[in-house]
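Structure ticket #2291
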Amino acid sequence: MVTVIEASGLTKQFGNTTAVDNVTLSVPQGALFGLLGPNGSGKTTMIKMLTGQIRPTTGMATVLGLDVVNDPVGVRKLVGIIPEQETPPSFLSAMEYLAFVGAVRKIPDIEEKAAWWFSFLEFEDKRDVLCKDLSRGTRQKLMFAQAFLHKPVLALIDEPLINFDPIMQRKVKGYLADYVKSGGTIFISTHILEIAEEICSGFAILHNGKLLYSGAISELSGKKQHLSEFFFSQVQI
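Resolution: structure written out below.
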């Protein structure tokens, strides 16, 4: 089995606060993997460490075979990233932002590729609107598009559906499922258990920075539990 994410003893401290505490985790190629936990559990910190945006205090991690500390830029070149807070530059229009991403990533035919995303995510009328004037849902559409413009083999997404209405959620879930079927790998963090149970093949539970469990969604059928029941049995809230 080929793994695309390997973390060993990954820890991040902010002063006296331990946001992520000695996490060891493996994600196989072709998974739609969910990192689950309540708000403040350390999910966003994990994604930032795995994408080289912040350095772990101790421990190590590789993403697509690259060390996230020694080669953070190399990691970010290969993967797609959607942060929890959608933050496209306020002074650019939606199209200008995608053109900028295309230039940085050296993506050919950026106009054609951007047009596909404007159509697919149904925001063609916002193409020339400044990012600062876009709604939260439209900004998330834009961030989703920029993450997949270069067709990465791995995408890491923080709360992928939180600002989408039910119709757009359905469309995006279908896209993620098809992406994995075509050979990609998706790593999402979320606290919405129903979505994770619906779309994920594997999952891990993070609570107060500690990894409580990691396994396959299919294992829950043997336990005769839904994901929400199993989740609460682990976090004991």
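Closing remark: The first strand starts at residue 3 and ends at 14.
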